[in-house]
Amino acid sequence: MLDTANFSIQDIFNTIANKMLQHDGVEQSTMMKTPCLRYKGEFMAMIFDKADSLIIKVSSQRVNDIIREGKGLEFTFTKKRFSEWVLIPHTFVNDYESFIQESLIYAQLNSNKKTLSRKNKGSKT
Fold this sequence. Notes:
Layout: H1 9-20, E1 26-31, E2 34-39, E3 42-48, E4 53-57, H2 60-68, E5 73-74, E6 85-89, H3 96-123
Antiparallel strand pairs: 1-2, 2-3, 3-4, 4-6, 5-6
């Protein structure tokens, strides 16, 4: 667990991001002019400064669970609900690493599904 008391939310994200970059396929990128993590090009996580929160991408069911547990909020920045994105408030900063790990697992599963789908389409004659 990180010592989060004396660091900004972006510093904490950067520390976690550096660990995550050790995983094959994880890369640093930007979204909305903000540093983010991606897995094989697919969005995983970023800090959303306007809400002083972490955004992660997980299944829509998991988004609902996190909200129901009181650890997350809907992401509706563009007045549209992003069903696979959830805001995790700074209050839960000590859980950010596990949430980002969860987003990596979700991205890996989605990547595997896409790979299998492409292979199945390619094998049809």
